[in-house]
Each structure stands twice: as structure tokens, then as C-alpha cells.
Amino acid sequence: MPRAIHDQQNLPAREPGAPETPKYERLRKYFVEEVLAGRLKPGDMLPTEQQLADTYAIARSTVRQALGALQRDGLIQRIQGKGTFIHEDARVRSRPDLDVFALVLPETQSAFYPSLQRSFDEAAGRVHNQILVCQSNNNLDRQGNVILQLIDKEVAGVAIVPVTAPPTPVYQIRQLQKAEIPVVFCHRRVEGVRAPLLAIPFREVGRLAGRALVERGHRRVAFFAPHLSESAVGYLEGLLDVLPPGGVTAEHRIIFGPESVPDPEVHEPELLAALSAVVNHPDRPTAIFASFDSAAELIYLLLLRLGLRIPEEISLVGFGGTVRSSPTLHRITSVTVDETEIGRRAVELLDRMRRHELPLDSNETFVMPIRLSDGQTLGPAPRGARSSR
């Protein structure tokens, strides 16, 4: 039998001063409060749509909207031919502190990360979620501490750009999944963990940069990366796929930073020394590919300090987001990925997993499109530096 609900009664009144709320939302909120208070228990059967409509003197379509929202939130389940029941996990799923999505990033201030945060926040707002943004500094221990705090806060889901040096271990992410917290990987996945991935095609980034350089006659290219990571290896492999043999020599593969995210002010002397060695080499490269726009910006300024004309004497290509947030970035030619789309898609996937429309162990990969941006730092190879393949 349906759980007893009083005969004719009014919908719960809105709080004084609160904005007008649609009737279906007030009915939905009423059932959530009943679940949290323990007055509706797992397995309880609800009255029919018509009975609820009669009880609250509202249209049956309004009841249907409220029940549809409860079903999407995983608080009720409808069984054909039997009725509508309170889900066994309804009380856990209805807790207010689950309305927070977390975004875990190696850094938050440079390159495409600020735009990624904004789009993640905007998309979360559209599904009525708050967000937490956590910075790991590309440090494994810090990331582990962040994950433990997110588990303690019982967040609704986590989108994470995993640390790369050293690689993120499986157990860190599995702690989240054991707590039934949805996880979405951004840029790269943690091998051995099944979760959706919004992937940057690292090798194709290098190929696209390489093709743009080759089309303009470049045959010798220097590769700069803050540290050796999965992404850096992919970029370099893509360049080598396209450039002729010897196009990126071992001495022109420059890893200029430590394992953590580089601070340009701290590591500028090391980068300047490496850059000086490259541009003063007898067989100087005619172009540089930098694996991240923040590095490309600094390289651009250092090349000017060294007295080189860009792109007349040396070209520069970076990698980053479609939002070019500074005057220097507007000048730099880069392979770009739409970071705002990554933020939007991450929220969409977390929301689907929270609503049980997508399994927590879904291993789908969504490859994000890339393109070459317009800029002023890519030109033809200087005369005398060109050679046939």
C-alpha cells in the first residue's frame, strides 16, 4: 500500500523573502526533506500521480515534473506495473553537502587553467552545483591530501588533471571511487583506473605543430618542455612523425624545469641559459615548439632579450587554450584546445554519473578537437636554412 499521506493539504510554503518557486520544485523539495528527516524510508511506496495531485490540489503534470526530477536525482525508482518507491540510497543521495563538484588542477593561474575553471563553474551553476577548485602544484603528496579532504567533504564528483611527475598512482583515484564519488579525467587518464576521459591528443598536437612548421620550410626544430611527462613525450613523438630525420636532435630536446609546475620567475635563469645554448648553436634550429603557452610566453620574451627577431630569424609555436588571455599570447602562434569545452563536458559527465545515467567505471574517451591559432610568431624558415626532405 502507498505510504499514508494526509488528505487534502497545501504544498509546503516558501520561506519568507525567498523568490517564488515553481510548484513542482516545492513538491520535489518536500519529498527530499521527508527523506532526510527519515519520515520517508527506503522502499516506501508513494501514492499514484493522481493521488498526489488530489492531495496537493495541483495538476497531475506538475506532479509528473516533480517525480521526474526525483528520479533523475536517483531518489525514487519507478517499477512498471508496481509503482513508485523511495530508492534504498535516497537519504545519502539527497544530502545537501553532495552538491559540490571539485576541480583538481596542477595550477590555477596560467595558460588555459583560468578559462577551464570559469567554464567548469558556469556549467556547474546550470545544474545547481557549487564548485571547489583545488591546486596540486603537480605534487603527488599534495594531490593525495586534496583527495582525502574531498572524500571527507563527500563531494558530488571530481574532475581532475592528474599529476605527472611522478605519475598518479591508481590507489589515489580508487579511494574516490570506493567512496562512490564520480571521477572524470581531464587531459590524461591514470592507467589502471576506469573513468571517463576528456583527452588532449598529445601526439596529434605535435603532428599539427610539425606540419605547420614543415609547410613553411622549417627542418630543424628545438623542443622545450618544463618536465618529462606523458604529454611532453606525446608532443615530441608527433613532431618526430612529421619532421625529417634529425629534425629534432637530442641536444635540442630541452627539459628546463623541475618535476613540479615551473615558476617562471624562479626558473627563468635556467631557461635563459638553455635558450642561449640553442640559439648560439652552430646548427641553430629555425623554430622552437614549446609544450605549454606559459613557457612559450617566457621564451618569446627571452628571445627578444637575446636580440632575435621573431619570426624573421626564429619561429615559435606553443600549445594552449583557445582563450588568449594576454597581449603576449595574442602574438604567439599555438596549437589550441578548447578549454571551455573541457570544463563544460566535465560537469556534464559528472552530473550524468551522479544521476546514475553513466556508470562510475565508464571508460569512455572523448578526444577534444585541436586547431592551429592565428599568431605572429610563425613565419617561413630563413633563407639558407631550408632543405628538402
UniProtKB/TrEMBL annotation:
Pfam families: GntR (PF00392), Peripla_BP_3 (PF13377). Residues 21-89 form the HTH gntR-type domain. InterPro entries: LacI/GalR-like_sensor, Peripla_BP_I, Tscrpt_reg_HTH_GntR, WH-like_DNA-bd_sf, WH_DNA-bd_sf. Keywords: DNA-binding, Repressor, Transcription, Transcription regulation. Residues 1-22 are annotated as: Disordered. PROSITE patterns: HTH_GNTR. It comes from Singulisphaera sp. Ch08. This is Substrate-binding domain-containing protein. GO terms for molecular function: DNA-binding transcription factor activity; transcription cis-regulatory region binding.
